[in-house]
Amino acid sequence: MDIGPGSRSGNFTSTSYPDFVDFRRNIASKADLTAYNMQTAGLNSGDRTDRMWTETVSANYFDVLGVRPVHGRGFVPEEALNAIGNELARLYPQTNAGRSRSLIPIWKAPFGATSIFRPVLMVLTLVVGVVLLIACANVANLLLARGLGRRKEIAVRLSVGANRIRLVSQLLTESILLALLGGLAGLVVVQWCTRLLQTFTPPANLPIHMTLETDTSVLLFALSISVVTGVLFGLTPALQASNPSLVTTLKDETVRLGGAPGHSRTRSTLVIGQVALSLVLLIVAALFVEALNKAKNIDPGFDPQHLLAASFDLRPVNYSTDRGRAFQKELLDRVRAIPGVESASYIRRMPLGFSGGNSLSVTIDGYVPKPDEEVVLDVNWVGPGYFKTMHTPLLSGRDFEASDETAPQRYVIINDAMARRYWSGRDPLGTKIRVGDSECRVIGVAQTGKYQNLSETPLPYMFLPLWQFYRAEAALVVPGEGDPGAYFSPIRAVMRTMDPKGALPMAPTWPTWRGA
Q1: CB atoms within 10 A of CB 191
Q2: pLDDT at residue 202, rounded to an integer
Q3: HSE toward the beta carbon, residue 207, CA cutoff 13 A
Q4: d(Cα 464, Cα 435) in Å, to the nearest integer?
Q5: Going by DSSP bridges, is the β-strand pair 376-382/438-446 parallel, antiparallel, or unpaired?
Q6: Which helix H or strand E contains 447, and what residues bound it?
Q7: From its phi and psi, is residue 19 left (phi > 0), alpha (psi between -120 and 50) or beta?
Q8: Can you say how many angstroms the Cα of residue 263 is from the centroid of all Cα atoms in its chain?
Q9: Which residues of 289-311 are buried (b: 16+ CB within 10 A; e: fewer)?
Q10: Whole-prediction pTM value?
Q11: Which residues pair with 510 in a beta bridge?
């Protein structure tokens, strides 16, 4: 299970480590909790530094997940959920009052890989299930037809004293054997189709590996499904084939095509079922294609065509804030000078990416929060000219500029969903938003886009200038002509020219943009 912490405004937020300690202390007798935080690091190997993803975890992380290290050992600790949350709110009202906690199965978590793969896997499971039913109905119909052809043989065996139960068992064994052969053929096809499933992996700077090995559990599942379908769809043909009219069958070797009335009704039912399921499958496929077309035509709030996004992180190479800021500025100037590059800018976390998001608690001038309401907004850090680079329309105000770095006032750009939500028809330009210890003036209102996924409702969002709020981790966004992936190598060469010893870790976040 995953604890889903909610802010007073209902947004999904992170949990502080002291809260985690209190939660774990209070539920230790019933269950156990673990904490984790995902981040990047650099692996230095001589003259190069490779980017890698790491997690800072509590000591019981591997024990709670039931995972054992392949080599070495795990960490050794030095040492009703709502009721605990209420107690924390009483003890620490400033940080915990009005907050909620909910237990979420990891496979249902609204973030991470499961949020991306779950809808795809559900559709695939539905389609596979319908196809299986159609195939089983078809095979059952063939078994009925085969039973008609064996009526003479079965009638003779029954007339000389054969036991009907043994005949049914024999016929069921044949159908189960047929189902097992089909299951074996399916496993062979699975080995060929694993690469196809890999195409569902979303583009991200976080390495994603889909484990598609055919292990013992897969084999047992395939065996179980084969046996169950063999019994369910072989039982009716076996019962009908083992109960012929002995006198009629033995006197007349020629059996009319339709067979007995019972056989005809069963075969007609199976045919009707096949047609109905096929029709359902066609409708689902048509709706799925239509949904894909609609998703493709959804405006994400920026121009996705011919866009390269390459992420890098200055923390692993121990850049100071001043050096890191100077590096980012020089890199941006050099990239903009590459032939074919129309413009370039920075963003800390790509929209519709797989690197999560950030939220901050803010105070908005002129807005009076409701009782127990905490204004927590999603936020991103972007470079100068970001909205021009991404072709995101500014409904009013201006874009961030390089000169903002030395301005005495800090700035912020909001989207129009945020303007409608918190300004209620007032003009937000020039008003102030307090972000932590900084007071920022609204200088622009951007068109609302899609930030986490294409199906999200309009989400209040704000952008802070990277030149004023330095972040060591960022993605360089570069639109250009032709294949955007062609710019990755020149950009990397520029980075190594600027700092050949640092060997900054860099990875393409989106060779081409894909929204899903």
Answers
A1: 11
A2: 57
A3: 10
A4: 10
A5: unpaired
A6: none
A7: alpha
A8: 48
A9: eeeeeeeeeeebbbebebbbbbb
A10: 0.64
A11: 309
86-95, 195-204, 471-480: the lowest-pLDDT one = 195-204
Distance CA 388, CA 149 (A): 75
Distances, alpha carbon 133 to alpha carbons 127, 196, 276, 368, 377, in Å:
10, 23, 11, 58, 48
Q: How far apart are CA 44 and CA 502, in angstroms?
A: 9
- The band of 512, judged by pLDDT with boundaries at 50, 70 and 90, is very low
Q: Where are the alpha helices (DSSP H) in 242-320?
A: 246-251, 261-297
Find, among 328, 422, 341, the residue nearest to 381 by Cα. Answer: 328
**What's the residue count for the chain?**
516
What tokens were used for 449?
Answer: 């886009």
- pLDDT tens for residues 276-310? 888 888 888 888 788 778 877 788 888 877 788 88
69: CB partners within 8 A, 6+ apart:
62
**In whole angstroms, what is the distance from residue 52 CA to residue 45 CA?**
12
Question: For residues 365 and 62, what is the distance between their CA atoms, to the nearest angstrom?
Answer: 46
Do 140 and 237 contact (CB within 8 A), yes or no? Answer: yes
Written as six digits, the tokens of 500 are: 């050949």
Residue/partner pairs of 407-411 with CB below 8 Å, 24 or more apart: 407/468, 409/440, 409/441, 410/438, 410/439, 410/440, 410/441, 410/465, 410/468, 410/469, 411/440, 411/441, 411/442, 411/443, 411/464, 411/465, 411/468
Strands 100-104 and 2-6: antiparallel
CA 47 to chain CA centroid, Å, is 35
Rounded CA-CA distance 51/53 in Å is 7
CA 448 to CA 346: how far, in whole Å? Answer: 19
* pLDDT greater than 80 at residue 172: yes
Q: How far, in Å, CA of 221 to CA of 183, rounded? A: 10
The chain-wide mean pLDDT, for the chain, equals 77
Quote the CA–CA distance of 300 and 350 in Å, as a whole number.
12
More confident residue, 291 or 505: 291
d(CA 206, CA 41): 12
What tokens were used for 358? 């950030």
| Count of helices and strands (H, E) across the chain | 14, 15
Distance CA 291, CA 298 (A): 11
Q: What is the amino acid identity at position 110?
A: P
Q: Report how far residue 171's alpha carbon sits from residue 177's, in angstroms, rounded to the nearest whole number.
A: 10
SS (H, E, C) 383-432: CCCHHHHHCCCEEEECCCCHHHHHCCCEEEEEEHHHHHHHHCCCCCCCCE
pLDDT in tens, 337-388: 988 888 899 999 888 776 667 889 899 998 998 887 888 899 999 999 999 9
DSSP-derived letter for residue 380 is E
Q: Residue 262 and residue 42: Cα distance in Å, rounded?
A: 72
